[in-house]
Amino acid sequence: MFATMTTTDMTLVLGSASLFAAVAWGVARAGAVWDSIAGAQWSQQTEMFQRLGLKTSRLRLGLRLWGATMIGSVFFLWAVCGMFPVALMTGVMVYVAPRYILHYLVERRRTLIRDQMVSATMGLANAVKAGLSLPQGLTSICEEVPEPLVSELRRIEFEYHRGRPLRDAIEEVRQRLDIDAFTLFALAIEVSLDRGGNVGEALNRISVSLQENQRIERKLEADTASGRQIVQILAVFPLFFIGFFYFVDPHAGALLFGTLAGQLVVCVVAILVYLGVAWANRIMRCDV
To answer: What is the recorded membrane topology of this protein (predicted)?
Structure first.
């Protein structure tokens, strides 16, 4: 096949291959540069991901998609659609979106560990009361506790079997997680190890306290669930209103995006919706 190709054909093939290689190299370099930029921008969230045992590989992929979405949406709305105010507003919204998404993922992980601490503490208290030592009790509850808490407990167990003092292994996990429920659990064990005492009884009191805190927090979440749902409905209502308005009167609806004044109105509405949602969430936020 190559013998029948002319010089022009060979030049085209080599040029295409060189262009493909250059594009691939540029994309790889751009990805590495973007990873460093995004890592510096969201270093605190990335550190929290690592401390809670979340997978940072998916975070890296998500941040790349975030960058591509931000650049692509701004380019499309500005260069293709000619809507600079809307493009600027969209770019800002996409830019700040990871802060809320990552915060949600971190808080969901922390809440899951907090809820699992109740049954884990109660199980360890019963194991100690049954005559098992603390390391043996940790081994027994690891068979019952689900992820992600079981990974932290197995890490403590692994460090202990490697020769590290149990107190130091628990303290390292406590400082890394920085979750109130685990802090109470760790301090109860550390005090009992340092000063002696009935570890099972101390863990039992801690489990009762954690269970009561969990009950109060879930009651608060249930009481504010309807309010959060109303806020979500009101937040997306302007989008449905614009769609309905465009369906009823396409010419008048097109003025929102076809004129500078209409685009500024859309931006103002987006800002007001954002401020309203942030204010409502602050009002409904209750810390126990």
So the answer is: Multi-pass membrane protein
- DSSP 8-state class, residue 76: I
pLDDT band at residue 1 under the 50/70/90 scheme: very low
Contacts of 216 (CB under 8 A, 6+ apart): 288
pTM of the predicted protein model: 0.76
Contacts of 82 (CB under 8 A, 6+ apart): none
Contact 228, 57 (CB under 8 A): no
Q: Which residue has the tokens 């000619």?
A: 82
Q: Count Cβ neighbours within 10 Å for each residue of 75-84 and write b for 16 or more, e otherwise.
A: eebbeeeebe
From the list 210, 117, 131, the residue with the least C-alpha distance to 170 is 117
**What pLDDT shows up at residue 23?**
46
- The pLDDT value given to residue 81: 83
